[in-house]
User: What shape does this take?
Amino acid sequence: QVQLVESGGGLVQAGASLRLSCAGSRYIFSSYAMGWFRQAPGKEREFVAGITWSGSRTSYQDSVKGRFILSRDNGKNTAYLQMNSLKPEDTALYYCAAGVEGGGGVGGFAWRYWGQGTQVTVSS
Assistant: This one.
């Protein structure tokens, strides 16, 4: 069974930083792209960032470009989302996802597996 476990969420003030982590199995990190989505109350889930299996290519939602950095350590089976200069509008439940490259999906990936989410709340 594929499991993705997120951690690192919390309550911070605007302008602060947080780093989210997504831990998975060796199976996932040996061949899958990784990504992050978020869902705010009353809104649809939206793509935040994605990274290829090799880490050679990343893609970001326009609103987080220049503030968020997605990386991965395949040796540790973990992906990281460094979030800087956080804004109240970044408040959401953040989900980790694993997928395959191409396929015409969001961010250029076809997402197959999902974590349970970690809450990020940014106060003004």
